[in-house]
Amino acid sequence: xxxxxxxxxxxxxxxxxxxxxxxxxxxxxxxxxxxxxxxxxxxxxxxxxxxxxxxxxxxxxxxxxxxxxxxxxxxxxxxxxxxxxxxxxxxxxxxxxxxxxxxxxxxxxxxxxxxxxxxxxxxxxxxxxxxxxxxxxxxxxxxxxxxxxxxxxxxxxxxxxxxxxxxxxxxxxxxxxxxxxxxxxxxxxxxxxxxxxxxxxxxxxxxxxxxxxxxxxxxxxxxxxxxxxxxxxxxxxxxxxxxxxxxxxxxxxxxxxxxxxxxxxxxxxxxxxxxxxxxxxxxxxxxxxxxxxxxxxxxxxxxxxxxxxxxxxxxxxxxxxxxxxxxxxxxxxxxxxxxxxxxxxxxxxxxxxx
Length: 354
Fold this sequence. Notes:
- The protein has helices at 39-46, 105-108, 149-153, 158-169, 184-196, 208-216, 233-242, 258-267, 290-294, 306-317, 334-342, and strands at residues 2-5, 14-17, 28-36, 48-50, 55-57, 73-80, 92-95, 132-135, 141-143, 176-180, 200-205, 221-224, 250-253, 273-276, 297-300, 325-330, 349-353.
- By secondary structure, the protein is α/β, with parallel strands linked by helices.
- Helix 4 (158-169) crosses helix 5 (184-196).
């Protein structure tokens, strides 16, 4: 089968032919229909993350090269092992990629995405930038019908991450919610927030095309920060004026860079809730006294569990949310796909069709 592998960071992915694996036991072999191109793939390709006081290598987290990236996998079951139940050859499936060790208390609770010894597909083990993907256990598959297969791919990561972030952000029944970043995750979050909350939705981004999409999907107010900058006083003033000078009750930051977090902290309402999602990296100086005085909550959101994905699939089946696939690439074009994402040329999501 043809695959695209990261051989070493910051070098072009290598297109290779390797043996197609044969599933045994609970394993399932999926013929990949589409695989989403995610910012996490970029970080894997670049070899790590900017922590603000250094560079955290993915190899220090357990990644081993070469690896086949790609964790937003949708396809058709090609072969099954002899212990597989409820899944048949020919089924269309969405793959849940956030696999854990399987034996720790977190995994036993079902939160494999938060396992401290992760085995995620496309990160710690081979993923979907390939003609076929071997799934280690059928329990990580969800049969899908009634929705566009390629659109469903994004629900395994970008949609799932947005869904988890929104659920955290609406716990305080916000009157106003600010969504920072109108990329694939931000646009999904606008739709989910509109479906699950009555909040006034404000969306901030640097790009008019993305902001117009956000407006189309339900944002009540949009703010282009390109000219003024995320961390500048004028950006804060614009947001505060929309919120009757009280500030948003909740903020979801899909960028999570120093300028955006500075903006978050400058406008968050007393008793407000900031959910940080993006992995841009960096660091900020934090006025510690303002945290207790304003009684704000700052928390992270990192994808969701399998049940969250099933809930999200249901929203898609009901037409409540519509994933955006704006560009398609062949497996041979994988390096172009990553470069286009890196250079902000993608609105919504792009997919590779092996």
